[in-house]
Specification:
UDP N-Acetylglucosamine Acyltransferase, domain 1, 9-stranded mixed beta sheet, 2 domains, mainly beta
């Protein structure tokens, strides 16, 4: 196995010196990676994407152009964040307090989005924190996620609702009797009380 090259940061990107970038990672034009963010190996941070302070990103993740990943989000290994997707962090957003004074950083507590291994968030989707997107789940483009998404679930709409199951290959699973089968890999899954697992 060949050693990975050092992380590459394009000249127009803004990466704080306190951020950590893994080997083989690329940060593209105009992207911003804030202080204490930790980005794993072989990741791609697309043009004009934003990675907030202290955000943790696993290995082999893709954060596409214009995506906004606000702290304290956590992306496990192999997560895909589509173009223009947003992971929020404020449960009760306001610019000012009730008395009209400007809100300071100490006037609110950030809440995060957890995206588990292999999951994908589609283009322009919004995950409203606090929420967890399960392993290998897929959030359709333009969906608004307001509650936790189970492992392998396919969700779509506003608010997002489950419309099927997907496997690690990212394709919708086909129902065959009591089983769900991946049309790409032929892997088989079984559903028990709303939970999908390998057969």
């Amino acid at each position: 196995m060949q050693p990975l090259p050092p992380a590459r940061v394009l000249p127009s990107a803004d990466v704080d010196e306190r951020a950590v970038l893994g080997e083989g990672t690329t940060v593209w034009h105009l992207a911003q990676v804030r202080e204490y963010a930790q980005i794993g190996r072989e990741c791609v941070v697309g043009r004009s994407a934003y990675v907030g302070s202290g955000v943790v990103v696993g290995d082999r993740c893709k954060i596409q152009n214009l995506a906004l990943v606000y702290e304290p989000a956590e992306l496990q290994d192999g997560v895909f964040i589509g173009p223009g997707a947003v992971l929020t962090n404020d449960l009760h957003p306001r610019a000012i307090n009730a008395d009209g004074s400007a809100k300071a950083a100490t006037d609110w507590t950030a809440v995060g989005v957890l995206v588990k291994r292999g999951a994908a968030i589609g283009a322009r989707a919004v995950c409203v924190a606090p929420v967890t997107v399960g392993a290998w789940a897929t959030v359709a483009a333009g969906a608004v996620v307001t509650r936790d998404v189970p492992d392998f679930a396919l969700v779509a709409g506003v608010p997002a609702r489950q419309v099927g199951w997907v496997g690690p290959a990212g394709r919708k699973l086909e129902r065959r009797g009591d089983l769900y089968v991946c049309p790409v890999t032929s892997d088989e899954f079984i559903e028990t009380e709303g939970v999908l697992s390998r057969a």
